[in-house]
Write a structure and sequence with these properties.
92% of the residues lie in helices and 0% in strands. The chain is mainly alpha-helical. The mean pLDDT is 86.
């Protein structure tokens, strides 16, 4: 019977050793997966950073261009106040005439019989 007990103990030791090897292999695989995930996260962060910098650069250029155009318009208005006033008056008059024309066309015809 002692032989049987020794055989069972040997089988148990072999099973434990096999499990330890499997656990060690799983740990190595998890480490590889973690490294791969870290590399991909770093690549994604770099890509997002590039997108952000590109968008920020475009926004900065657009803001600068708008500021320049606003400055140009402001200078033009300051240098030609009469021209701007005339344009506004002319635009207002055209608007009034257009409004009258639309109002006349929407009125029902009056028939005088």
């Amino acid at each position: 019977m002692a032989d049987n007990s020794a055989g069972a103990s040997k089988a148990s030791d072999d099973a434990q050793e096999a499990m330890k090897k499997q656990i060690a292999e799983l740990r190595r695989e998890i480490t590889k997966i973690n490294r791969t995930l870290a590399e991909r996260a770093e690549e994604a962060a770099e890509t997002a950073q590039g997108w952000y910098e590109s968008a920020a650069d475009k926004a900065s250029r657009a803001t600068q261009q708008l500021r320049s155009q606003a400055h140009t318009v402001s200078d033009t208005v300051q240098q030609n106040p009469g021209t701007i006033s005339s344009a506004l008056v002319l635009g207002g008059m055209l608007g009034i005439l257009l409004g009258i024309a639309i109002a006349k066309s929407s009125e029902p015809e009056r028939r005088w019989f």
